[in-house]
Structure formats: structure tokens, C-alpha cells
């Protein structure tokens, strides 16, 4: 009798799981399939890759892709240069400041980008006055936007190593603080740094709010603009950028895994 | 007051030895130690705090910079009040839909293999849709149920059903609700999956061996433990939908049904004379709503953390 109850229960569970995965699977995959279908439409009901080849044929679009890639790299670098020394130093010498730095880094979560951009508009009038109106000046804003994601990743990395002992050992052997940072800390938390950088890259490539309202032509702004006259190309680029972000995050899931495994082995 | 004391105790021996190794250099070294943090503080001060303060202060100023409450008073009536109500409605509905379906999906993933392909794909896909979607999501739905969308054409050609018989609903509030749910469910998976992972199999086994059913388990054990996490996630989803801009901006090009689109109107120049700072007041309103939701979220999160140790 008990065995029968157990059997029905596990069957019920399998059925429920199957139904949930099926229904939500269709809900999430249908739009992606529709994007593939829409972007391969040709004249008179035929299939054509014109929308996809249109991506490289549009100089404005190619330009905006290059801008977004440069922004992604630059923002990741600025983020690393800002966070790694500061967070390391605070753990070693100024633990009093840890709460403050954490609060500041997580603050962008509570301030919507659409609100931040209202305050940034006058600030960017100055930035563009001094540095020219290159879209690469968006790096300043983007390094702020990625702070919450990057902070969590790097904080987890620093928590996983015995920073104090490592730093004291290196200092005892005569290493300068610069050497400690670049040759002790950075190699030891490299997976966390890669993770933080990948998240930043994905975030910057997908950013629209600030770029569009400060009138800079980044990938997403161009895609949105293009959608008004040639929906096919816009949909092709959209699908491409979603797939690209998916690959980045899928790789990230393996990196995060490996770090935890090493931590367990060491512990 | 408490924090420095604990730090001093924890770092006692090390702090002392450093002090002895460098006699007389104490104050100078402290000053130098602070210097390292200055670039970070200056950067965050310039590009995060300054713009924020500008918005908050601006909402209390008239166009000449004098103090006024008129901007905030304007928020409580007319189109602005309606925009806030619509934003709250949109956020609440999509948060609820996202939380319920997201929790179900989390459960379906959590009972599978922890290292399985399904879980990896769902988690990575959820990350993309929840955090990096934006404009592409709007185009995903245009390709699906837009005027020339795949599903629209299919229903029209095969069943003679016109999706847009009742008007261009995709570009209004109902459409936004559907598209927002598309990124709310994934966000729920991201924040709720760790909570489900925290449920210990032993608890389930204990209920089983005492003769309890699935219902008993969820009613008396799983449910009450997960409730704070569920409510917290609900608040996070609410704040997320309330702050979202990109998807709505790409989808709705005419009119400003919700607050973020109202703010767009102020930034792109549709401003009446003497109302320059009303956009900042709208920003302040958004910060207050999001701030309250995130604050409550942090409280609930702390409460749930007790069970995860």
C-alpha cells in the first residue's frame, strides 16, 4: 500500500514537471523560433538570408557594433582597475570601509537607469566639453552600471582565498604592494575576475537606456532605430545578440563551477 | 560604534605587530591607507552620487533654482498620477505572474540533476532574458505577435483569427504585461532557485517517514520556509519591472503610459516651460518606490538566511 502511494506520488511529480517544462518551454522558445522565421523571410513566401547578410552590409550597424564592443572592453577594464585594488585594500587595511564600499557598489540596483540618466545628462555636457563627444565616453556611465554585478563576483572570489596570509607572506618576503596586487591577488582570483568581466561585457552589449537618451549610437540604439524601417535586420541582430549573451553566460556557468570545486578541494 | 570594536578584537595581534614594526609612523600610514581608496570614492562620487543628488535636489527646485514643492504636488494629479498607477499595476501583475510561473519552473529545474544540461541551459537562458534582454525582447515579440509576426500570420492564415481585432494591444499596457512577463519569469528563476536548493532532502524524508503526504510537506515545512524568499523575490520582481525602460521604449513609440516613458518625454524635449524639473520629480518618485521595495526585500532576505546555514 505504501509502495503504491509512493509510486503514484513520483509519477505525479514527473507529470507535473513535464507539463511545467513543456508549457514554459513553448512560451520561451516560440518567440526565439519566430525571430529565426521572421529574419529568414524572402519575397513571396520563400526563405532568404538577406536580413542576415544585411547586418554586415549596413555601415552604421557595423560601426555601432564596433562601438559597443570597444565600450564593453573599456568598461570592464575601468571596472577592474577601480574595484580590484580598492576591494583588496579594504579587506587588508580598512575593514571599516567595507560596508560603505558595498553600499556604493550595490546602489545602482536601487536607482533605475532611467533616473540615473536624468542626472547624467548635465554631467555629460561637461564630459563631452572636455573629452569630445565620442560614444566611448559612455565608459564612465557603464563602469557604474556594472558595479553591482562585478562587486558580487569579485567579493566571492576574495572570500574564497586567505587574502591576509597571502599578502603578509609576500610582504614578509619584501614584495611591494603593487607586486602583491598584480602577482599574488590577481592570479588567485582570476576566475572571479573573468566572471566579473564576462557579466560586464554582456551588460554593456545589451545596454540601451543611457546610450539612447544621451544620443550615442551603440548597438542597441542602432537596432531600435533600424527596426523602424527594416524589421528583418533588427530581428536578426536581436537574435544574434541574445544568442551571444547566452553563450557568454553558459561559459560562465562552467567557470563558476570550477572555482567552487577548487575551493572545496583546498578546504 | 560596535563595528570598530569587533574589528579591533578580530585583528588584535596583527594590528599590534604592524604598529610595533613601524613606530611613530601610525598617523602618516593611516593617511596613506585612505589615499588608496580615494580614486574609487571620487569616481563613484562623480558618476553615481552626483547625478543621483542632482535628480533628488532638482525635484525640489523650480526653474530658477528656488525651493518648491510644486513638482512633487504635480505628481499627485493628472497624467503623472495615472502613469504611476499604471506603472504600479504593470509591475504588480507581472511580478505576480513572474513569481508564480518562475517558482514552478525553479521547482521543475531543482528536482532534476544539479549538474545536468537542462539546469545549465535554463540558468544561462534565464540570465540572458532577465538581465540583458532589453530591446531584443521587444523585437522578439514583434516577430511573434506583431502585425506581420509568425503567430499572427499563422492564426490568420490557418484559423482566420485576427489577433488585433480589439486594437493594437501589443503596443499598449496588455502587450507590455506579456513582454515583461517574458523577463520576470527568468528573474524569478535566478533569485528563487538558490532558495529551493536550500531545502534539505532530510526534511522531506522526515515528513515521509512520519506518514505525511506531499501536501503536508508543502503546507507545514517547505511552504513556510520558502515564504519569506518567495515574498522577497516578489518585491525584487516588482522593483525590476518598475525600473525597466528599454523594452517599453522599443515597443511603445507613441504616448507615455508608464513613468519611465514619461521621463523619456522630458529628456527628449517635450517639456512645457517652467516644468523642467518635473522629470526629476518623476525620478524621485521612482527611486522612492524602488527603494521601499528593495529595502523590504533586503529585510526578508535576511530573515530567510537563517534557514540556509
Q: What general outline of chain A do the C-alpha atoms trace? A: globular
The amount of beta strand of chain B, in percent, is under 5%
Question: Whole-number radius of gyration of chain A?
Answer: 24 Å
State the order of secondary-structure elements of chain A, H for helix, E for strand.
HHHHHHHHHHHHH
User: How many helical elements of chain A?
Assistant: 13
Instruction: Characterize the main sheet of chain B.
Output: none
The separation of the N and C termini of chain B measures 27 Å
Q: Estimate percent helicity of chain A.
A: over 70%
Kindly list the characteristics that best describe this protein:
heterodimer; A: 267 residues; mainly alpha; 13 helices; 83% helix; 0% strand; disordered C terminus; B: 309 residues; 15 helices; globular; disordered N terminus
How is the topology of this model organized?
The complex is a heterodimer of chains A (267) and B (309).
Chain A: H1 2-39, H2 50-57, H3 59-92, H4 98-110, H5 113-131, H6 138-145, H7 147-159, H8 163-172, H9 177-188, H10 190-206, H11 209-213, H12 219-227, H13 231-266
Chain B: H1 2-10, H2 12-21, H3 26-35, H4 38-58, H5 70-75, H6 78-110, H7 117-131, H8 135-145, H9 150-159, H10 173-197, H11 201-209, H12 214-243, H13 246-251, H14 259-267, H15 278-305
Amino acid at each position: 500500500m505504501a509502495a503504491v502511494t509512493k509510486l503514484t506520488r513520483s509519477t505525479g511529480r514527473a507529470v507535473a514537471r513535464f507539463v511545467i517544462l513543456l508549457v514554459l518551454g513553448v512560451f520561451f522558445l516560440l518567440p526565439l523560433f519566430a525571430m529565426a522565421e521572421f529574419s529568414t523571410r524572402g519575397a513571396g513566401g520563400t526563405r532568404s538570408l538577406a536580413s542576415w547578410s544585411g547586418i554586415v552590409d549596413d555601415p552604421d550597424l557595423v560601426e555601432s557594433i564596433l562601438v559597443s564592443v570597444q565600450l564593453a572592453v573599456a568598461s570592464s577594464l575601468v571596472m577592474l582597475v577601480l574595484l580590484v585594488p580598492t576591494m583588496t585594500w579594504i579587506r587588508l587595511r580598512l575593514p571599516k570601509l567595507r560596508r560603505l564600499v558595498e553600499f556604493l557598489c550595490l546602489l545602482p540596483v536601487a536607482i533605475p537607469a532611467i533616473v540615473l540618466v536624468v542626472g547624467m545628462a548635465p554631467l555629460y555636457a561637461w564630459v563631452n566639453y572636455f573629452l569630445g563627444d565620442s560614444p566611448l565616453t559612455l565608459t564612465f556611465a557603464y563602469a557604474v552600471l556594472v558595479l553591482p554585478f562585478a562587486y558580487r563576483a569579485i567579493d566571492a572570489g576574495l572570500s574564497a582565498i586567505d587574502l591576509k596570509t597571502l599578502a603578509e607572506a609576500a610582504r614578509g618576503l619584501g614584495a611591494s604592494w603593487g607586486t602583491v596586487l598584480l602577482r599574488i591577488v590577481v592570479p588567485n582570483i582570476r576566475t572571479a575576475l573573468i566572471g566579473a568581466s564576462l557579466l560586464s561585457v554582456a551588460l554593456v552589449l545589451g545596454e540601451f537606456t543611457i546610450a539612447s537618451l544621451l544620443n550615442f549610437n551603440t548597438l542597441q540604439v542602432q537596432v531600435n532605430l533600424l527596426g523602424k524601417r527594416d524589421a528583418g535586420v533588427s530581428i536578426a541582430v536581436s537574435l544574434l545578440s541574445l544568442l551571444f549573451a547566452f553563450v557568454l553566460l553558459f561559459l560562465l556557468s562552467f567557470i563558476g563551477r570550477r572555482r567552487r570545486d577548487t575551493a572545496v578541494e583546498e578546504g | 560604534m560596535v563595528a570598530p570594536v569587533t574589528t579591533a578584537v578580530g585583528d588584535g595581534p596583527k594590528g599590534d605587530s604592524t604598529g610595533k614594526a613601524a613606530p611613530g609612523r601610525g598617523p602618516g600610514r593611516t593617511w596613506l591607507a585612505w589615499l588608496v581608496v580615494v580614486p574609487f570614492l571620487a569616481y563613484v562620487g562623480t558618476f553615481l552620487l552626483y547625478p543621483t543628488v542632482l535628480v533628488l535636489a532638482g525635484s525640489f527646485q523650480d526653474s530658477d533654482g528656488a525651493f518648491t514643492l510644486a513638482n512633487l504636488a504635480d505628481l499627485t494629479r493628472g497624467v503623472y498620477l495615472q502613469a504611476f498607477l499604471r506603472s504600479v499595476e504593470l509591475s504588480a501583475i507581472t511580478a505576480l505572474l513572474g513569481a508564480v510561473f518562475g517558482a514552478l519552473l525553479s521547482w521543475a529545474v531543482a528536482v532534476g540533476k544539479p549538474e545536468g544540461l537542462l539546469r545549465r541551459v535554463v540558468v544561462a537562458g534565464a540570465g540572458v532574458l532577465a538581465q540583458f534582454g532589453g530591446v531584443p525582447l521587444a523585437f522578439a515579440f514583434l516577430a511573434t505577435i506583431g502585425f506581420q509576426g509568425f503567430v499572427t500570420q499563422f492564426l490568420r492564415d490557418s484559423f482566420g483569427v485576427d489577433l488585433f481585432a480589439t486594437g493594437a494591444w501589443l503596443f499598449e499596457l496588455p502587450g507590455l504585461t506579456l513582454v515583461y512577463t517574458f523577463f520576470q519569469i527568468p528573474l524569478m528563476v535566478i533569485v528563487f532557485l538558490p532558495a529551493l536548493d536550500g531545502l534539505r532532502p532530510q526534511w522531506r524524508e522526515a515528513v515521509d517517514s512520519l506518514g505525511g503526504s506531499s501536501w503536508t510537506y508543502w503546507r507545514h515545512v517547505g511552504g513556510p520556509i520558502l515564504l519569506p524568499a518567495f515574498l522577497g523575490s516578489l518585491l525584487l520582481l516588482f522593483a525590476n519591472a518598475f525600473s525597466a525602460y528599454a523594452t517599453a521604449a522599443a515597443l511603445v513609440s507613441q504616448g507615455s503610459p508608464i513613468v519611465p516613458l514619461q521621463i523619456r518625454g522630458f529628456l527628449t524635449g517635450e517639456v512645457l516651460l517652467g516644468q523642467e524639473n518635473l522629470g526629476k520629480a518623476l525620478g524621485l518618485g521612482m527611486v522612492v518606490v524602488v527603494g521601499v521595495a528593495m529595502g523590504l526585500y533586503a529585510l526578508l532576505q535576511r530573515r530567510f538566511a537563517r534557514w540556509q546555514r
